[in-house]
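Morning, I've got a small favour to ask if you have a moment. I owe you a coffee for this, so here goes:

…
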Amino acid sequence: MIILTGPPGAGKSTVARLLADRLSPGVHLHGDDFWHFIKRGRIAPYLPGAHRQNEVVLGVLVSAAFGYAAGGYQVICDGVVGPWFLDLFRAGARERALPLSYVVLRPDRRTTLERATGRGGDALTDPGPVRSLHDQFSDLGVHEAHVLDSGGLTAEETAGSVLRGIATGAYLLDPAAGDTGGGVVANGPLRDS
């Protein structure tokens, strides 16, 4: 199980697709899709009031991810998963005795903004929330060792670096450890205390 995270524009989805193509059997779970499954009553996950919704959606994502992993698939979960939500994944890893890797793609703020605001479709392009989410990933404490600066790398280079880190155990999380990344950041319930 690989959690591939970071702010919008970090390259998560592109890199996750490349990883799923290289790992066999591989599954890419695009986290944004799990929010888009809610057709009525959805709250943008970065807005006040979205906390309960975010817990539910992440719980569903975790269940799906570990369902595939229990079936022998190598799963890449791509989405905004800060340390404040790692306990959900750790519980799944403990229950199934599966390794759990946590990789944070974090280009510099300017690169993140350029990439995120230049996208189309349903992607988050509003600079305010993008900046806020980048800030939430700017100081991860003990999880800084899981950060990969993807700003100067192509998607292929980033995927290769992630695979090398996974192979060496550089991104492995201790499923028994508690979450130490909590805190509250203004403008975003994605980070829980």
In short: The radius of gyration is 15 Å.
